[in-house]
Amino acid sequence: MSHAVADCFSIKERGYIREGYFADLVVADLNAPFTVGKENILYKCGWSPFEQAGEGGAPFNFPASITHTFVSGHLVYGNGQWDESKKGERLLFER
């Protein structure tokens, strides 16, 4: 999904898994459903539109779970643990 965006906007060294490029990746477990609830919302605002997006206003059930998130090649989220020691980097454009 990120190839077309990186190409369309000429974003430098993003959008592909290549040596020398920044790795912005999400790893999902397709066999671990996830139900959104107040107790597992990680948004800073503390709420989610998915809390009542399911049938009859019930919490929404996703068919998969996110297990890891990498930003610029750095593991920032893995199995429920956060590492905020390194932040994302500014995008550069080749225009």
Describe this structure in words.
With 95 residues, this protein is mainly β. The protein contains one helix and six strands, in the order αββββββ. It starts with a helix and ends in a 13-residue tail after the last strand.
Summary?
The protein is mainly beta and 95 residues long.
Q: Keywords, please?
A:
95 residues; mainly beta; 4-stranded antiparallel sheet; two-stranded antiparallel ribbon; 24% strand
Helix-strand category: mainly beta
Question: Uncertain spans, ≥5 residues at pLDDT below 50?
Answer: none
Please give the radius of gyration in angstroms. Answer: 16 Å
Provide mean pLDDT, rounded: 88
Strand order of the largest sheet: 1-4-5-6
Largest sheet: 4 strands, antiparallel
The N- and C-terminal alpha carbons lie at a distance of 21 Å
Would you count the extended β strands for me?
6
User: What is the helix fraction of residues, given as a range?
Assistant: under 10%
Summarize the SSE layout with pairings.
Layout: H1 2-8, E1 25-29, E2 34-35, E3 61-62, E4 65-71, E5 74-78, E6 81-82
Antiparallel strand pairs: 1-4, 2-3, 4-5, 5-6
